[in-house]
Amino acid sequence: MFQKEHKQTSIASNAIFTTGSMRASKLLPSVFATIIILTLDFNFSLGKEIKFIFLETFSPLKNLSQSSSQFSREISLFFTSQYKLLNDLDKKNEEIELLNFELLKLEQLAKENEELLLLMNYTKKPKISKSVVGEITNISSFPKESISIETNANEISEKMVAISMNGLVGLVDKIFPGYVDIIPIYEKKVNIPGLIQRTNQNIILEGTGERNTLLIKNFKNNSNVTLNDKIFTSGLGGKYPKGFLIGNVINISNLEDESSLKVEVKSLINFDSGTKILLVLP
Amino acid sequence: MTEYLDKKNNFISVYFFIGITIFFSFLLEIFLSNMFDLSVYLPLTLMVLIYWNMALPKNIGLIWAMIFGFSLDINQEVLLGSHVLLFLFISYLTQRYFHRLRALYTIQQSLFVAIVVLIYQIFLISFLGEFKESIVIELISLTLISALIWPIIFGILRQLRIKFIQSN
Fold first, then answer.
1. In degrees rounded to 5, what are phi and psi of residue A278?
2. Do the Cβ atoms of A162 and A278 come closer than 8 Å?
3. What's the start-to-end Cα distance of chain B, in Å?
4. Nearest-neighbour CA in chain A from B133: distance (Å)
5. Alpha carbons A9 and A3: distance in angstroms, whole number
6. Do A15 and B103 touch (CB under 8 A)?
7. Angle of helix B63-75 relative to helix B82-96, nearest 10 degrees?
8. CB-CB neighbors (< 8 A) of A21 in chain B
């Protein structure tokens, strides 16, 4: 053993002054080429495409190592008491997820029932002669705001108006087989006979085309109106059922001719809220 | 009498054989780096490269250092050429002083490899620009592991060299 060590030491002492045939001149071309590539990659991201292709190629190897580490974890867990515990935990988590889903479904069902109940209350009003329930299937905002209601189209007439759980929302625009399109009460050229609750004055409301905004038509300068006056449907003309809240007065201003006032009414009801719509004929 | 040696010579080309071993070490390095979520990697490719530079400096040249350097750059998504430059310099030093390195004891060689690995990793971290608190611990532990596994790599490659390649 000592002899071997002595031999090793003598070889080492002889080798100290010996160098291999490798010279710096052999190395320099490769170093220059590499530095050029490095600079190009640094400045112009030259290797981006190449890297992408190669990373795609190497991806099975990456996945293999990841799945094998997962497999080894599974194996190691199998032989410990934690395995059963983790399995139980996973099962319980799945059960919780299912229960949460059921809860959501029940909540949704409760909401729908509440909505239906409110709609049914409207049908009991004596001024309503015919009513049909429909379900909102599509909400569109272009070219104009509208909602599609899935319902029995045979029972629908173009004179019907739409009531959601919050109140009057719109009127029938078009009837298709199986569904109808509803436009909001604030759509342009929609005229609604209304009543100012405080003064019992009959008015005509006209849609502006802007969301939730209506104007009182031909409102005389000397009329009695104040901000926050509540406007209801008057039922005149027989198209809209009487007593549904349309909105509040939010702005009063003078028009150019000074004989009339411009009165803006803000509708308080969201056109596309809820899931059910009641189509009624007064 | 020389039939035995001739048979070994024809079995596989030395150059190709060196490439295969480096390729396998490269694959293993990628595999291990993906398995453990660390900032630094166990530089198996570098260690195999050091072995072949020490054992057969006339056969290896600098091409394999460049090829696998670029491959590692691509795989680790660093600047193209980062690994290559380091591999080239380490190959140069090892080929230049292979007589001295060969004569060292295994423990001394392990120490040499540990120092090379440490410098290599520090340079790579500076290329990557990722400085974390945990990186120092990872760096030290991987340097130690590299020193510890060097005798194993050395032994395996030496056995393979004896079995498949006629010594020059």
1. -105, 125
2. yes
3. 18
4. 25
5. 10
6. yes
7. 150
8. 57-58, 95
* DSSP H stretches of helix in B44-105: 44-55, 57-60, 63-75, 82-96, 98-103
**Overall pTM surpassing 0.80 (yes/no):** no
Q: Name residue A149's beta-bridge partners.
A: A136, A180
A182 φ, ψ (degrees, to nearest 5): -115, 135
Alpha-carbon span A19 to A199, nearest angstrom: 112
Q: Is B162 helix (H, G, I), strand (E, B) or coil?
A: helix
Q: Does A4 touch chain B (CB under 8 A)?
A: no
Closest CA to A229 of A211, A212, A216: A216
Q: Is the dihedral of CA B56, B61, B65, B70 positive or negative?
A: negative
Q: Read off φ and ψ for residue B13, nearest 5 degrees.
A: -70, 140
Cβ separation B80–A50 shorter than 8 A:
yes
Cβ of B82 within 8 Å of Cβ of A38? The answer is yes
Tell me whether residue B68 is exposed, middle or buried, using C-beta atoms within 10 angstroms of its C-beta: 0 to 12, 13 to 18, 19 or more: buried
Higher pLDDT: A129 or B43? It is B43
Has the ipTM of the complex gone over 0.85?
Answer: no
Residues of chain B neighbouring A24 (CB-CB closer than 8 A):
92
Residues B46-61: tens digit of each pLDDT = 999 999 999 888 878 8
Rounded to 5°, the CA angle B144-B146-B151 comes to: 110
CA dist A88 and A82 (Å) reads 10
Q: What type of residue sits at position A223?
A: S
Rg (CA), chain B: 16
Chain position carrying tokens 């070219």: A143
B31 contacts A12? CB cut-off 8 A:
no
pLDDT for A5 beyond 70: no
Domain count, chain B: 1
Helix, strand or coil, per DSSP, at residue A227 = coil
Enumerate the domain spans of chain A.
127-184, 191-269
Q: Does B25 touch chain A (CB under 8 A)?
A: no
Listed in sequence order, the residues at least 6 apart from A218 whose beta carbon sits closer than 8 Å to its beta carbon are A204, A260
**What gap in Å lies between CA A233 and CA A190, rounded to an integer?**
13
Please tell me the total number of residues recorded for chain B in this structure: 168
- Containing domain of residue B93, as a range? 3-164
CATH superfamily of A191-269: Rod shape-determining protein MreC, domain 2 (2.40.10.350)
Query: Tokens 């969301």 correspond to what residue?
Result: A211
